[in-house]
Amino acid sequence: MKRTCCTMRQVLFLLVTSVSLTLLHACGADQEAEQPLPLAVRVTSPVKINMAERIPYIGTVHAGKEIQVLAQVQGSIRTLPFDEGDEFRKGEVLLVLSVPELEANTERLRAEREYWCARNEADERLLAQQAIPADQVEAGRRACAGATAALKEATSRLEKAVETSTFDGMLLRRFVELGQHVLPGQPIMLVGDNEVQIRVDIVEEDLRRGIAVGSTVMLTIDEAFDVPGRVVERAPQSNMQSRTFTAKIRPTARERFDWRHGASVKVNFIVASVENALAVPTHAIADRDGDAHVFLVRNGRAYKQYVQTGIEEAGLLEVRFSWNGEDMVVISNPGRLSGGEDVFAVESQETRL
Question: Which among 95, 159, 248, 349 has the fewest CB atoms less than 10 Å away?
Answer without folding.
Answer: 349
